[in-house]
Amino acid sequence: MEKLKMFRFSVVVVVVIICFGRLSVQAKKNVEQKKQTYIIHMAKSEMPASFKDHTHWYDSSLKSVSESAEMLYTYSNVIHGYSTRLTAKEAQVLEKTPGILSVMPELKYELHTTRTPSFLGLDQNANLFPESDSVSEVVVGVLDTGVWPEGKSFDDTGFGPIPTSWKGECESGTNFTASNCNRKLIGARYFAKGYEAALGPVGQTKESRSPRDDDGHGTHTSSTAAGSVVSDASLLGYATGTARGMATRARVAVYKVCWLRGCFSSDILAAMDKAIDDNVNVLSLSLGGGMSDYYRDSVAIGAFAAMEKGILVSCSAGNAGPSSYSLSNVAPWITTVGAGTLDRDFPAYVSLGNGKNFSGVSLYRGDSLPGKLLPFIYAGNASNVTSGNLCMTGTLNPEKVSGKIVLCDRGVNPRVQKGSVVKAAGGAGMVLTNTAANGEEQVADAHLLPATAVGQKTGDAIKDYLLSNPNPTATIFFEGTKLGIEPSPVVAAFSSRGPNSITPEVLKPDMIAPGVNILAGWSGAIGPTGLAEDNRRVGFNIISGTSMSCPHVSGLAALLKSAHPDWSPAAIRSALMTTSYTAYKDGKVIQDVATGKPSTPFDHGAGHVDPVSALNPGLVYDLTVEDYLNFLCALNYTAQQINGLARRNFSCDSSKQYSLNDLNYPSFAVSLQAQIGSTSGSAGVVTNVVKHTRTLTNVGSPGTYKVSVSTTSESVKISVEPGTLTFSQTNEKRLYTVTFTATSKGSNANVFGRIEWSDGKHSVGSPVAISWT
């Protein structure tokens, strides 16, 4: 009997092992058969003579590994190649096929989610800028969530014929026809093949499979860059005034690449490819993805091709601040923009039962709270879950919340959603407090119930009262719009910071621009909070992010392009950078709101944009395609990697010495080696010497420029040779060398400085950031 039991047990074990083995094999098979989108870079010069058209060659290469696979897109400008759906095994086989430079898995990118013209000095100095005819020849292309064409920001009254250089079109689709475009909004396209291949048809959601913006983000960014002048604009009565983009007479072309669940690189590349064909002059991308080498970054690859065609590409730096090394879009041929504040705020005060008042911000517009103090409760004490303090959906107990003002901690879920959760639980109002991650940064929102947002220190003080008083009470007062806030600008806490994690020798961000509480156009398909339960519809909305600062620079670049049509993208960026300011009128350095201390070039780059000064910068640091290729050689990229990025047969010269320090960038990021050793009999001290070369081009009148240098520490000495540069004619070039000398004992704190050339009229400034590795 025992032998029979053992036999049966053995049989069961064998069966289980066989089944498990089969399941393992099947699981492995399923993984191998699972398809994903890949972007295939082809070496166009290696196309066999038997093919008359490169697309036929692409198709042949694809069919060699999969008879059923089809190309999603073919690319001719940003890369030579195509995108398609393959299994991992098919991708591996394809990568070994002759003529293939690389087979890259598709990446997903995310959006980096009035008064700014006046704040930037555009209103007071309008006569300094080009006549409308020249500006109207400039086209700003915006890659985003589409456009709400009925918005007043796209009114074409007074616009002349569409520029003859324009080759684009207005695509029809769901809730969108060619008639939605006009002489202002001259182009609209959408790209969804990559998105749909990964996540299914767009039509299954509430989104329009067309250029129509159902999100609001794209309408906001495009109207910020080049929206028409709109009088009496506001959000629910807040920030009332004349709304206008940076380049009001420029034309707008939108390329919808972002959908409900993200933006996919195959679609982004296709849009950039088409924008180059369409002849845009500026490209604005308020989106970003994970950091990777430039030859693997679709935005960097597309931007290189655009730069080569004379198109300036402006991208948001990201909203991952205040952490260091948190930047996106750091390629040196991209203009990378961080975010600062305006001198405008929307105060809403918390009044406590102990008689103390605290300042916050809000864009709430609705029924006021009763004219008396209400019971006040901390969300963490009104919930049965450990994360109840965050006011996430379903976490609040209505019996404890009903009729009370609730204090919620910021984090995890959207700020406006927290208010919606409080309202759904019967709460009368909300105080939203920052944690250490956001410091004293205050971002206003159009809440669905009476609510205000306060900084961390204020929040801690309110909590002390709330948790120590047996019967705490509070109310909230709303003060509307307040101008003249000082200091301004300050660097936003959310704005991503350097150093540059891909190439520390290139300082990023390049500059900051207004990105907090920005009023601009909005979609008619969604409320100002973006929540499904928000039934309000507005023509303008106030939101924050480097997504908002990026189109400011895109529009300013359009103005400079119209004033100086012969300037390269690098020259335009240089003008914006070298004329940016880093201090207030009292001489104090622009603050970082995350720390309350002076910001550094890792936070603000070259400083805050000053477009009026940028019109006449005196000198510029220019860059050519050859300069960028030399930069790639200095990175030790292989010929295959360079060809995949730059679409050409190019090999680095083995006899040439390439240096990252020779890239003619308008800023200086200096990497010194922290070592312990002995030189000149001084134990434990090593002298570091690093040299950078730069070339300045005269774009103004003849003159002599003298250099001045400043640093935050005497531990690093900066010398410039020669100390004087004389220019006798326009476009004349002069070279100079900067020597950085430091003695290091182990690790050192970062040192910052500034190199400035001046002829008494122009100041051509460059930030310096020195760090040890």
UniProtKB/TrEMBL annotation:
One GO CC annotation: extracellular region
Coiled coil: none
Domain PA: 396-462
InterPro entries xref list: PA_dom_sf, PA_domain, Peptidase_S8/S53_dom, Peptidase_S8/S53_dom_sf, Peptidase_S8_Ser-AS, Peptidase_S8_subtilisin-rel, Peptidases_S8_3, S8pro/Inhibitor_I9
Gene Ontology biological-process annotations: proteolysis; system development
Catalytic residues in the record: D144, H217, S547
All copies of domain Peptidase S8/S53, residue ranges: 137-587
Occurrences of domain Inhibitor I9 (ranges): 37-112
Stretches the record annotates as Disordered: 202-225
Subcellular compartments: Secreted
Molecular function as annotated in GO: serine-type endopeptidase activity
Listed Pfam families: fn3_6, Inhibitor_I9, PA, Peptidase_S8
Main localization, broad class: secreted
Alphabetical list of CDD domains matching this protein: PA_subtilisin_like (cd02120), Peptidases_S8_3 (cd04852)
UniProt entry keywords in alphabetical sequence: Glycoprotein, Hydrolase, Protease, Secreted, Serine protease, Signal
Family note: Belongs to the peptidase S8 family.
Protein's name in the database: Subtilisin-like protease SBT1.7
Species this chain originates from: Abeliophyllum distichum
